[in-house]
């Protein structure tokens, strides 16, 4: 069966009853969205208390067209931990409509390791993304309205840095002209759209820990610069942050759904790790840590992006302490890193696997020796994997002093990941590791970029033109203490998506920097990464359909 057919066949339990049965969550704490979705009404005081749970981060090797299965492994591991008697909650990001209709076709796990209702989660869900889009675009509208009605703040229309957003892949909107049609329609200027997951509002949403914190952060968004003094103009000066908070108030409560095996999952927020910080909300993670003994969460794409940003941004801001990292790899993907093409991946090829292992080796080294965390490798099993390939990969991982488990959760659900779950629990119990940041707050912005580029990407150095260097120097004066969030291709350690394996000695070209003052980090855009993706030649949307009885097909 397809993923969505498996999801439709699931024996779901009413979410209100499930929350009560598993964790004693009273119904008064829940706002139901139908029978199988609910929002957990946050208790801000409990988020400040000591959190009992062990935080497990699931990351992966550098992504390939062959797939790695990070979300699937997160769900499977959560189910497996519950199967072996450990009270566990999963924390995931909400899928964006862009990839759902673009390449991925869905992001709720796969096979028998899914969260449900899968079709709701992948589409409108509880409306969080719509609320974020609306709040972001309200601010954009208020900027233009302020200029239209006299521009008391002296905003330079050529220096507006707050674009509009849309939760869809639409390359035609990357650069647009607004205000066409005469004076009644405002002032003529260039503008553009980013995808909603790249919005600073999304980042703030995922990093805020209360409504008051949310409002304060929204007010700090730099929207533009003035004509004369080049002073930054904040959202609070437009009196926009109150209304934006009103739009986001309900969305800030994390969403609760269930796995196919009727275990709880928080799904909340969804920034991409290639263009943003790639983690679910701090509120959801801390809420889960207050309820469960183990919390399994994910960080987007490979560990060079997701895990680094999880530690350097989310853990720094949220004061979180991860217990261990699970690195997901597939034999197919490693053979791709070893030089094979998609059509050849089903054939046994030990040479390509050994060559491609360098990618996993680099990620293991980064997690252990750069971020200071213990890790376990989860081999996400495919039916075409040969015994010789499995044994080779296991031997190479074990030779690095790292535990490894072959996981069959896609085919067998939690049962197929029990070995992984057992090893995770044992490793946490015996571990004394403590995460460390790649840089301290007092390191200059340029030095922070160098620290990530040289230590994680293994670049020889970084470069930027004079305009970018000047911008970094200007930002250093007011925001130099902030962490950095590098936007780059997820497909390679370099900025060239075609460089597979573990390239080193390359140069990280910084083409743009900007401050996300509300989120609390500096955005560094490297290479040709786009903050508004385009659709592929044959988008997943062409395969998505609805039957006469309302059943959706084509999500996967």
What labels would you give this structure?
alpha/beta, Rossmann fold, Domain 2, N(10)-formyltetrahydrofolate synthetase, Formyltetrahydrofolate synthetase, domain 3, 12-stranded mixed beta sheet, 4-stranded mixed beta sheet, 25 strands, 20% strand, globular
Spell out the blueprint of helices and strands:
Elements (H helix, E strand, L loop, with lengths): L2 H6 L6 H9 L6 E3 L5 E3 L3 H5 L5 E7 L9 H14 L4 E5 L4 H5 L7 E2 L2 E4 L1 H5 L5 H21 L6 E6 L3 E3 L9 E3 L10 E3 L1 E3 L4 H8 L3 H9 L2 E5 L5 E3 L6 H8 L6 E5 L4 E4 L14 H10 L2 E5 L7 H13 L3 E8 L1 H7 L12 H21 L4 E6 L6 H12 L4 E5 L1 H4 L5 H13 L14 H11 L5 E3 L2 H14 L4 E4 L19 E10 L4 E6 L18 E2 L5 E2 L3
Parallel strand pairs: 3-16, 3-17, 4-15, 4-16, 8-11, 17-18, 18-19, 20-22, 21-23
Antiparallel strand pairs: 1-2, 2-14, 5-6, 6-14, 7-12, 9-10, 12-13, 14-15, 22-23, 24-25
Helix pairs in contact: 4-17, 7-8, 7-10, 9-10, 13-14, 14-15
What does this structure look like?
This protein has 556 residues and is an alpha/beta fold. The strands form six sheets. Strands 1, 2, 3, 4, 5, 6, 14, 15, 16, 17, 18 and 19 form a twelve-stranded mixed beta sheet that branches. Helix 13 crosses helix 14.
């Amino acid at each position: 069966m397809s993923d969505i057919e498996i999801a439709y066949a699931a024996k779901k339990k009413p979410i209100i009853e499930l929350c009560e049965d598993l964790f004693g969550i009273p119904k008064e704490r829940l706002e139901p969205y139908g029978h199988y979705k609910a929002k957990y009404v946050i208790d801000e005081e409990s988020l400040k208390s000591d959190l009992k749970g062990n935080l497990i981060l699931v990351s992966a090797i550098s992504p390939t067209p062959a797939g790695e299965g990070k979300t699937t492994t997160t769900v499977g591991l959560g189910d497996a931990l519950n199967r072996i008697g450990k009270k566990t909650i999963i924390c995931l990001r909400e899928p964006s409509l862009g990839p759902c209709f673009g390449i991925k076709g869905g992001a709720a796990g796969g096979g028998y390791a899914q969260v449900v209702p899968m079709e709701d989660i992948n589409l409108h869900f509880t409306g969080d993304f719509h609320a974020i889009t609306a709040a972001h675009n309200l601010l954009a509208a208020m900027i233009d309205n302020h200029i239209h009605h006299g521009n008391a703040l002296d905003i330079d229309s050529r220096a507006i840095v707050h674009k509009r957003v849309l939760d869809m892949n639409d390359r035609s909107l990357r650069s647009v002209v607004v205000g066409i049609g005469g004076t009644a329609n405002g002032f003529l200027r260039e503008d553009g759209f980013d995808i909603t997951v790249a919005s600073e509002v999304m980042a703030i949403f995922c990093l805020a820990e209360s409504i008051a914190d949310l409002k304060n952060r929204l007010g700090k968004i730099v929207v533009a610069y003035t004509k004369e003094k080049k002073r930054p103009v904040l959202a609070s000066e437009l009196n926009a942050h109150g209304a934006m908070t009103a739009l986001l108030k309900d969305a800030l409560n994390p969403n609760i759904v269930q796995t196919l095996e009727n275990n709880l999952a928080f799904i909340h927020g969804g920034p991409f790790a290639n263009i943003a910080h790639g983690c679910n909300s701090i509120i959801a993670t801390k809420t889960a840590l207050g309820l469960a003994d183990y919390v399994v969460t994910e960080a987007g794409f490979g560990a060079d992006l997701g895990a680094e940003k999880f530690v350097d941004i989310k853990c720094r801001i949220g004061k979180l302490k991860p217990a261990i990292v699970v690195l997901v790899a597939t034999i197919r993907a490693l053979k791709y890193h070893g030089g094979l093409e998609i059509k050849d991946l089903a054939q046994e090829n030990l040479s390509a696997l050994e060559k491609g292992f360098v990618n996993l080796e680099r990620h293991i080294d980064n997690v252990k020796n750069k971020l200071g965390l213990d890790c376990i490798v989860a081999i996400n099993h495919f039916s075409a994997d040969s015994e010789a390939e499995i044994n080779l990969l296991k031997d190479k991982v074990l030779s690095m002093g790292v535990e490894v488990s072959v996981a069959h959760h896609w085919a067998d659900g939690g049962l197929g990941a029990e070995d992984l779950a057992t090893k995770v629990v044992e490793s946490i119990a015996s571990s004394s590791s403590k995460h460390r940041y790649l840089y301290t707050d007092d390191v200059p912005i340029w030095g922070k970029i160098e620290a990530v580029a040289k230590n994680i990407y293994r670049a020889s150095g970084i470069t930027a033109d004079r305009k970018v260097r000047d911008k970094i120097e200007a930002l250093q004066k007011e925001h130099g203490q902030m962490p950095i969030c590098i936007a780059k291709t997820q497909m390679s350690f370099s900025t060239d998506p075609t460089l597979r394996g573990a390239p080193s000695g390359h140069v990280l070209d910084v083409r743009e920097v900007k401050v996300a003052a509300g989120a609390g980090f500096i955005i560094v855009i490297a290479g040709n990464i786009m903050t508004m993706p385009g659709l592929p030649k044959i988008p997943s949307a062409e395969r998505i359909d609805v039957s006469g009885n309302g059943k959706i097909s084509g999500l996967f």
